[in-house]
């Protein structure tokens, strides 16, 4: 494996760029506080591990090369993101209509946070495409890719975990400072709209 330090540096820049994972973590931290954000992050990390082992075993290459499989996963991910975003907006409409305070949460509301994080990342074929296009640049031509891909995948996952934990705590602090229900209401609405936007963007994207 070549230029590991450069690989880590590039991973950091790529990880902090906003994407569907960030939007879902933000949404669940705002609605379910720190525990919701951490559960969502754990789901994302588990999905990244699945992508890592898929890349190591060559499954990602099969998905990327198969237009049908790529499209199925892509549209499933897009539909899921649009569903999550629409669910947020609909819940806000219901709260407006019934005058339920934004801070009141149903007992089982944060149980799906892990699942949301997991499926948001797992059903994004762009992650598999990223692994297969990015990782080989740091492997010497002709060398076996099993161990380098495994190291890079685990490194990317650990860095993602560190960033997500920091991000969750930051959002939670900001959320605590914004006590007004109306402000939280607006932020949740914006986040839901952004998630729908990511879903539409994913549906319109094509494999490179």
TrEMBL record:
This is LysE family translocator. It is a multi-pass membrane protein. Keywords: Cell membrane, Membrane, Transmembrane, Transmembrane helix. The chain crosses the membrane at residues 42-63, 75-93, 146-174. It holds the Pfam family LysE. It comes from Ureibacillus suwonensis. Its main location: membrane. InterPro entries: LeuE-type (IPR001123). It is found in: Cell membrane.
